[in-house]
User: What shape does this take?
Amino acid sequence: MTDTELVHLAVDGGIATVTLDSPHNRNALSRQLVAELTDRLRAAGTATDVRTVVLTHTGTTFCAGADISEASTTPMSGTAGALLALLRLIVDLPRPVIGSIDGNVRAGGVGLLGACDIVVAGPRSTFAITEARLGLAAAVISVTVLPRIDSRSAARYYLTGATFDATEAQRIGLVTLAVDDAESAVATLNADLRKASPQGLLESKFLANRGVREAIERYGDEMVELSARLFASGEAHEGMTAFLERRPPRWSA
Assistant: This one.
């Protein structure tokens, strides 16, 4: 790990703001970022003065998904397992988690949003589940994404990797609110959440996330194994190499 902190935690007025701040690689899910994000969320979840958690970002990208530079050179089994643990942590965190985004969300970043309880997307937000274009599949993140979105949209965007906007993301169930001013909308949500008791929030979150938690428990380990196998494949190597070299992969010719 470097000395540069990639994820920040700030607590003010009962709100813990966790900010992804790795603009050099578009907040990709590097080992360091995943470890720091896990640490910051755990700290927010156990702090007695925190009522709600906001997960947000700096720059024009919320999260670009896997760190392809790392994935192209090292085995991904450990990284996939760490991502699953991170998604489970967000879902099980004893505080409501609001995703606040106004930028690009790709691949694994979509999985982070699926784990959040509420997601607010500003006008600059775009989304794509791009794994298939790299010779991969949206394996681990499926445990939080598929319970949120309708099956026809899942097939369309999993298979094509096409980009869609915040309005479409709201229509299919990936985000809660597509708004012009994400910061204002998040402030209103936090004010509403403060009206609920801690016990009421905890038990209500447990109920609302039942389907996601069941998917994690039922399919999580299988998806970690699938992810590791795909990342180690020849097609994925070609897809990641082409991505890093900024050229089309051989199957797109």
Notes: The first helix runs from residue 31 to 46. The CA atoms of residues 26 and 125 lie 14 Å apart.
